[in-house]
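Proteins fold reproducibly. Next comes an illustrative record:
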Amino acid sequence: MKEHAMGQRRPLESIHESEEKYRNLIENISDWVWETDKNMVFTYSNPRVKDYLGFIPAEIMGRSMYDLMPREWADRIKNFVEAMNREGKPVAVCEKAMNAKSGEVVYFEMTVNLIFDENGRVTGYRGICRDIRDRKRAEEAQRKAYGELEHMVKERTKELEHARATLQAILDTVPIGILVVDAKTHLVTYHSSGIERTFGGPLVGKTYGVDMYPNQILHLDGSPMRNEEMPLYISLMFGKQVSDMEILARQPDGQEHTVLASTAPIKDAQGRITSAVAAIMDITKLKNAERGLQEAKSEAEMYLDLMGHDINNLSQVGIGYLELALDLLDSTGRLEPKDRPLLEKALETQLNSSKLIMNVRKIQRSRAGGLKYRPIDLCRILADLKDHYSQVPDREVHIGLTSSPQCFIYANELVHDVFTNLIGNAIKHSPADRRLDILIDLRKARLDGKDFYRVSIEDNGPGIPDELKERLFTRFEPGKTKATGRGLGLYLVKTLLEDMSGSISVEDRVKGDHRKGARFIVLLPAILDR
């Protein structure tokens, strides 16, 4: 009998130990976990609701979820739940907004499971909510200048069997990875599917360490991470909780994922560490959004540079000619026909200012997708430009063109500006007292399995020094670089080509001697089936 009683205690001890293990696991996951009846009236909530909405669980028990929502969101979620029931979806994901106790509207991403009775009838709903306020702000910023969010996840449940079922449902549906490591053996005892997606393969049964992952585990600066630096190791060996450590996971093909790791020790009733749990979240999209915001900021500054710097320069030129004209009027009382160029030059600079403003607007439309892409005959554009620039007043310019009768690309109207800029620069930055030869060569090219037209534009002008080539296509930095029409213009050329899935590069016309002229090479996607 004594042995029988002891045999009964062992399963009970195992149950209590597992209960404590999973209870700790849930308490270290930052989701709001809840249950409702079929009318969406709360029957359960974990404590995380207070962090997000300011209510303790007892304050929302017996209240309808819809009562805590803005009206338009309540109608939307009602339709969502009705669709779940109608279509028989066991699990569904949506966004929702709820009113916090403070009056703030809090946005969540909600995963909902249907709860069935033994007859297969829906009796209620079980869900988890993740706070996506940061993501909402990032999405709003991204419409203006790109952005995204960060999440945190935490869970909890009531009793053992209910906790296991709820936990399994959560782990199977949340977009995070959960990893559990045994304290004695250092073997991975559990991981969710999110771990495999992020780190590249199954880990159960492997000894915990940086070498167990199919992917390479690195610091954000790309340096290798040691076992003792890993967040789960810190929790496992020292009983410390680690929050939001950023780690780089590099796949065999070189792709990198940035992950956010939070870990905590799991202890038994005596306070001994039995295992440790890690919650892993892939924040690569958030990092990309941050980079997008920075690129948008740079783009806005570029427009400011254009409008502020170049237009100001043009205005100063126009003002100078007008002042000369006024000085003549003051001194002579009239302007002679020979003085006409003063007014013409002033008018020309104002027209150039207007043209620059129009070009900026075109670029903005291009970046915003406001320009239509269509098949364009690139050979026709180059032929027209050859004819136009071969007749520059007071200059001896010879332009040779090698191309086909027709060569179509898929681009927008600004492709004309690209080649106008390149040919115009060659003329503008070459000595006016000697003949300038420009050779334009167009031919087909194939790169990475894709068809392109390769346009080479070379001249026998003064060339471009190597130190300038490195920053030729970058936007100048006020206070550091003397801005020129050529440098800023080529930055815009590069921007326009990238918008059209093309590219530009520069090299010496004569290899190794930049003084013999420059060669610009443009690649644009070709249409070969016309």
